[in-house]
Design goal:
The chain has about 270 residues and is an alpha/beta fold. Strand 3, helix 2 and strand 4 form a beta-alpha-beta unit. Helix 6 packs antiparallel against helix 7 and helix 7 packs antiparallel against helix 11. It is globular. About 35% of the residues are buried.
């Protein structure tokens, strides 16, 4: 592994924050995730300067996996990136399996989903607790993460996966990849939480006029919450005896396939 590199370090762009790679993290067997293969980010339509475009294309991407809804991608379409194949598979779903759309046109449907959940539990629920339930469901039966792991197994790298802010759908996906490669739960969760460092100014501006006793609950609007992220990955071991059993059941990664994946992505 290249010395002087900090795992989770932000890749600076003029038009974006929270753009980084998964390389450098240590694994239980003493190896490290290879650098220059797995990238995570947010909306790409903000990378409009010549320097940003050159830096993005300089990554040599083969695949871009967009985890946003159709509505989000219509409002902020990804630019074409030379040499990269693009596909979009929404990373969050409504109860009926349709895309959860966080664009302006999807807000009413999201409220309907929350109303239905509140009726099911019999009382009003703060958005924080409702989304905590949704996040704990994300690792299971998720077509976006199945597409992500298919690309990993096919070695379609360098790969960039992204959503709108690079923090939720992207953050859970990144934790799953790191866990699959043998990175510790602690390091996977720490990578998730780095969003709060790289979006600090945005978060502080958003929370500045919010009541002090609401700030922890409102943090996930612009940042990420450790209980939410931890809940998503801990749900795996509530359903399966091990992470390896989860990856086999959800993504068809048998022991041999998982070992081959680790041999390719680790050094």
């Amino acid at each position: 592994m290249q010395t002087g590199f900090t795992p989770g370090a932000e890749i600076p762009f003029e038009g974006a924050e929270n753009f980084r790679e998964l390389g450098g993290y240590p694994t239980a067997d003493g190896r490290h995730v290879r650098r220059g293969l797995l990238y995570r980010g947010g909306n790409l339509d903000t990378l409009t300067s010549a320097a940003d475009r050159a830096k993005l294309e300089g990554l040599g991407l083969k695949e871009i996996l967009d985890l946003r809804s159709e509505g989000e991608s219509d409002q902020h379409p990804d630019p074409a990136v030379r040499g990269a194949h693009y596909q979009r598979v929404c990373g969050m779903r409504n109860a009926d399996g349709s895309e959860m759309d966080f664009s302006s046109r999807g807000i009413a449907r999201i409220q309907q989903e929350k109303d239905a959940y509140e009726r099911s539990v019999g009382h009003p629920v703060h958005d924080f607790y409702w989304f905590s339930v949704l996040y704990a469901q994300m690792p299971f039966g998720n077509p976006a993460y199945r597409a992500l792991f298919a690309l990993l197994e096919q070695r379609r790298v360098p790969l960039l996966f992204h959503c709108s802010c690079g923090k939720d759908r992207t953050g859970i996906g990144a934790m799953l990849i790191l866990l699959a490669l043998g990175v510790s739960r602690e390091d996977a969760l720490a990578d998730y939480m780095l969003t709060n460092r790289y979006r600090r100014k945005i978060i502080e501006c958003f929370l500045a006029d919010k009541p002090a006793d609401e700030r922890e609950l409102l943090l996930p609007v612009e940042g990420v919450s450790e209980p939410m992220g931890a809940g998503a990955i801990d749900a795996i071991l509530q359903r399966y005896p091990s992470y390896e059993a989860y990856f086999a059941a959800e993504f068809g990664l048998t022991a041999d396939k998982l070992a081959a994946m680790r041999d390719f992505y680790l050094e």
